[in-house]
Write a structure and sequence with these properties.
- The protein is 24% helix and 15% strand.
- Strand 6, helix 7 and strand 7 form a beta-alpha-beta unit.
- Helix 4 crosses helix 6 and helix 6 packs parallel to helix 7.
- The longest helix has 18 residues.
- By secondary structure, the protein is an alpha+beta fold.
- The strands form two sheets. The chain has a six-stranded mixed sheet with strand order 7-6-1-3-2-8, with helices on one face.
- Its EC number is 1.8.4.11.
- Keywords: Oxidoreductase.
- Belongs to the MsrA Met sulfoxide reductase family.
- It is an enzyme of class 1 (oxidoreductase).
């Protein structure tokens, strides 16, 4: 009779090599010039002190954001889709503009005479109280905007429109330089019928001047969500490198946008 003897081999966990999957948090591709000024802002911006937002922005562009389209659709909010119900200071008016990364756009509006206050934030999406990570996931449809408060007696809406057109290229869809995504789209978001009329007429004039299709959207202003404090007056405060840029009214110094 042939006897078969079973032998059990015990392997300790320490002897088993474990697969290692890591994602580098030190990706730092430089960003070439955004229209029409020079920039050293990274392609995937370091907007916070930790590397997490940068990684989430990168993953979001690849379809691995913190929210899937299904998740986002469950979070649709009538508040986010409603009008901006904040009130400007007495005698002042609001306007909203999206023209790419809001850091440089805000500084440009800060320099306009008659502008009394600027804030950067998120709007035109369907998620209530979005974070920077949320909008970078590419699933919430938010736009990075500057909400401008201005005195109509000393600053016309047309003056704000001039600043808006000069600051970016309105013929590139969902893109300014190497900043790509729906949050970087060109948009004018109006509060009054007068602002809407002026915006439409200005767009028509600008398109004739450029002889190219202007993709700027003109829509009613929706709920404005103020961005994280880190983003507010970012370039005026010096950004990551501490190089403060002037907010003096009428200043024509080149705006350098950096992460």
């Amino acid at each position: 009779m042939l006897l078969l003897r079973a032998t059990t081999v015990t392997t300790t966990p320490a002897s088993l090599p474990l697969p290692l999957l890591s994602i580098s948090s030190h990706l730092s591709l430089s960003k070439p010039s955004s229209f029409p000024v020079t920039s050293t802002k990274p392609l995937f911006p370091l907007r916070h002190s930790s590397s997490t937002p940068k990684i989430m922005s990168w993953l979001g562009r690849l379809g691995f954001g913190t929210r899937t389209p299904a998740d986002a659709s469950m979070d649709q909010s009538s508040i986010a889709q409603g009008p901006d119900d904040d009130l400007p200071a007495p005698g002042q008016q609001f306007a909203q503009f999206g023209a790419g990364c809001f850091w440089g756009v805000e500084l440009a509006f800060q320099r306009v005479p008659g502008v009394s206050k600027t804030e950067v934030g998120y709007t035109q999406g369907f998620l209530h109280n979005p974070t920077y990570n949320d909008i970078c996931s590419g699933t919430t449809n938010h736009s990075e905007v500057v909400r401008v408060q201005y005195d109509p007696k000393s600053c016309s809406f047309d003056s704000l429109l001039d600043c808006f057109w000069e600051r970016h290229d309105p013929t590139t869809l969902n893109r300014q330089g190497n900043d790509v995504g729906t949050q970087y789209r060109s948009g004018i978001y109006f509060y009054t019928p007068e602002q809407e009329k002026a915006a439409i007429e200005s767009k028509e004039r600008h398109q004739k001047k450029l002889n190219r299709t202007v993709v700027t959207e003109i829509l009613p202003a929706k709920k404005f969500y103020r961005a994280e404090e880190y983003h507010q007056q970012y370039l005026a405060k010096g950004g990551r490198f501490g190089f403060k840029q002037s907010t003096e009214k009428g200043c024509n110094d080149p705006i350098r946008c950096y992460g």
